[in-house]
Structures are given as structure tokens and as C-alpha cells.
Amino acid sequence: MDIHFYKYQGTGNDFVIVDNRDGAYSGITTEQVAHLCDRRFGIGADGFMMLENREGYDFAMKYYNSDGREGSMCGNGGRCLTAFARQMGIDGAELKFIAVDGDHEASFRENGWVNLKMQDVDWVEKGNMYFYLNTGSPHFVKFVTDVQEVDVYQQGREIRYNERFAAEGTNVNFVQELDNGIFVRTYERGVEDETYSCGTGVTASALTASPAEPGDYAIPVETLGGHLEIRFSRTGERNFSNIWLCGPATLVFEGNINI
């Protein structure tokens, strides 16, 4: 299979993207996706996405984890695919697309940032020193004193594969509160390692880090790959709406590969 691909990144969360609106790549296999995402023998990426058509929407998003299996919602991937859609000639100040978790809206800023509207959250499990919630993908959030001292691979893997989460998996976020915002490091299922950034993960972390009082909030977020911002309304103790994941989405390069 000959593939014309594009490589995008959003705060270091990187993706191989193809334009599949004509169905040319619909037959791609799990093994082929895993090969494309392999950092030694392929292009190298945290995930693989296809831009597709869907009636009633500007486009549809199909996302695969780097292990080749179709994944749940990827926030940074959604922002990168929105930037790619614009590059492919899908114009508009605001775009509407559908992903595995439902409808999304996206808009653009003059500084090159892409704003992505996430699904509302109406359930948060609060445990002893942790939170657990779904922001399009499941996330375990643990607050720590010094996030740079955490062995994210080892500790994240222990939680992701513990008795509760082993079957379906969970992403694991370690969060340090800063004077202005939070610093987040994430172990991602499907990648099975730490990534430089995780959009649904920083969203989950910002929601749980917000003040308990209802109101509108903007939480600055630092990741290993750069700066993001989460804007949302807190409407109750465990209810959040109008959630926006905001940050850069950048074309790295494009090319051709035969697999």
C-alpha cells in the first residue's frame, strides 16, 4: 500500500494523518498502523488518524493508538486533525466534526492555536488521593508534590494494569499544582508509555484541579511538550460543561511511504 501521509504534533503529542475522504486507506490493518507509528521502523507517532467524510459534518475523525487498535477520543489529535482539515481545504471559522465519543466543535486563533470543544462531564469519582473520570477517554488523576520526581512509566503502568483497570485500561495523570495553573505528565494506554502531552488527560486534570465553587474557569497547563489551556464552566460538585481544550497544532512534515 502506497500512503501519502502528514505528520502533525500538538505540544509534542504527535500523529500520522491521512486524507481518507475517498476511502483509499479504509483497508489498512492493525499491523500496518502499528508499523507506521513505530519510532524505529516506521514514521513514528503516538497515534494514527484518518480524515473522513460524514453527512451533516465538516469531517469525521477516525483515531488509532500506536499499537494499531482503534482508540477512544484523543484531544490533541482532534486539534491536529482540525488543523489538517483546514489545510485540506475544509474552510470555516468554526468546524464541526464527529469522533468516536460524539460531536465536537473547533475554532482557530490567530496565534496558530486550535480550540476544541470536549464532551460535558457529569460524573467524577473522588477517592483517597485520586480522581477518576472520563473526558472522552478514561483518566486516573493523582496529585503529587513534585511531578518531575515521578517515575511516570513505572507508576503509571502499575495503575493501568492493576486489578481494576487491566481489562479495559486507563490513562494515568500525575499532576502538580503551580502558582498559576498545573503541570501534568501522562501515561497513555495504547501507547503504553509516557507521552509528551495528552489532551483528554490535561482536561481531566484541570477539571479536578479547579476550585469547588461553580463558575467559569481558565486553567493554564504545562506539559513536557509545551503549554495548553483548559476553559470550562463548573456547574456542580462533579458537573462540568462548555469545556474547551486550547493549544497549538503544527504540521511537522509530509511524505510518502510504501507498506
TrEMBL record:
Its EC number is 5.1.1.7. One of its GO terms (biological process) is lysine biosynthetic process via diaminopimelate. PANTHER family: DIAMINOPIMELATE EPIMERASE, DIAMINOPIMELATE EPIMERASE, CHLOROPLASTIC. Its main location: cytoplasm. The keyword Nucleotidyltransferase does not apply. The gene is dapF. Substrate binds at N13, N65, G75, N76, N171, E188, R189, G199, T200. Transmembrane segments: none annotated. The record marks H139, E188 as: Could be important to modulate the pK values of the two catalytic cysteine residues. Gene3D superfamilies: Diaminopimelate Epimerase, Chain A, domain 1. Keywords: Amino-acid biosynthesis, Cytoplasm, Isomerase, Lysine biosynthesis. Homodimer. It is an enzyme of class 5 (isomerase). The active site is at C74, C198. This is Diaminopimelate epimerase. Pathway: Amino-acid biosynthesis; L-lysine biosynthesis via DAP pathway; DL-2,6-diaminopimelate from LL-2,6-diaminopimelate: step 1/1. InterPro entries: DAP_epimerase_DapF (IPR001653). Belongs to the diaminopimelate epimerase family. Catalyzes the stereoinversion of LL-2,6-diaminopimelate (L,L-DAP) to meso-diaminopimelate (meso-DAP), a precursor of L-lysine and an essential component of the bacterial peptidoglycan. It catalyses: (2S,6S)-2,6-diaminopimelate = meso-2,6-diaminopimelate. One of its GO terms (cellular component) is cytosol. It is found in: Cytoplasm. GO terms for molecular function: diaminopimelate epimerase activity.
